[in-house]
Amino acid sequence: MENQYTALARFYDMLNDEVAYEKWADYLEKLIKKYAKSTDIVLELACGTGTLSRILASRGYDMISVDNSPEMLNIAQEKCADMENKPLFLCQNMCELDLYGTIDIALCCLDSVNYLTYMNDVKAMMAGVSLFMNPGGVFIFDIKTTGEFARLKGVSNALSEDDGFYFWQYDFDKKTGLCQHNIELFTQGENGYERHQEVHFQRGYSFEQIEKMLQKAGFELVGRFKELSMKKAENEEGRVFYVARKV
């Protein structure tokens, strides 16, 4: 069994081609303009193959983009090679941040926080962001709620492309809050198809858990919104965006 985002790295953009990155960037900019006092340095945690970082950098933001996967970062660097205002890509675990200076904004998108399946890791990530964030800076992130994971339980899909095909399926344990995402990739090789398997684990966190951890890390909650909207998230369903300010 392969680690997360090894075999998957070169297929990541294909598997996420339904993500409306420009729309996400528009929404993040709306939150930034409404709540951020300064936009000098923007940190993106778990930047993956760098699509969102590239879009924001092209809009004038100075980006520091962190990911724990060398394979993903190699693709991100190639993707941004033609840019004048290139993001600074760092291979780091987001729970062990070690930046060169302070930041004004931190972003963590596409349910990357859910990939931290231990609360201590979420606390460490938030503490690191707080450590390097200027007072008054904002931290924006989204999570899939336990309600969303419960909805996905048993859902499966298959996709075929020119150079391969993949199959995935979700499972969810309500008692532990853990979601298991099984992925099988079949890629065209010299001697026929090669099979790769990856298992991804995510955890759902309640509003109360997230907000307590933010407070402990030195943040105050500014807003909690339904996916890509300015409507307050009242129920633990779907995807929820948090905006928190460094005290």
Descriptive overview:
The chain has seven helices and eleven strands. The chain is α/β, with parallel strands linked by helices. The strands form two sheets. It has a seven-stranded mixed sheet, with helices on both faces. The protein is globular. The protein has helices at residues 12-15, 21-35, 51-58, 70-79, 119-132, 146-152, 207-216, and strands at residues 41-45, 62-67, 88-91, 103-108, 133-144, 156-161, 164-173, 178-189, 192-203, 219-226, 239-246. Helix 2 packs across helix 3 (51-58).
Summary of the model, kept short:
The protein is of the alpha/beta class and 247 residues long.
Judged by helices, strands and strand pairing, the structural class is: alpha/beta
The total count of strands amounts to: 11
- Provide the spatial order of strands within the biggest beta sheet: 3-2-1-4-5-11-10
* Main sheet attributes: strand count, strand direction, barrel closure: 7 strands, mixed
Gyration radius over CA: 18 Å
Strand content: 35-45%
Bulk shape: globular
Instruction: Kindly report the average pLDDT value.
Output: 92
Ends distance: 43 Å
Task: Provide the low-confidence segments as ranges.
Answer: none
Percent helix, as a range, is 25-40%
Number of H- or I-type helical stretches: 7
Order of helices and strands: HHEHEHEEHEHEEEEHEE
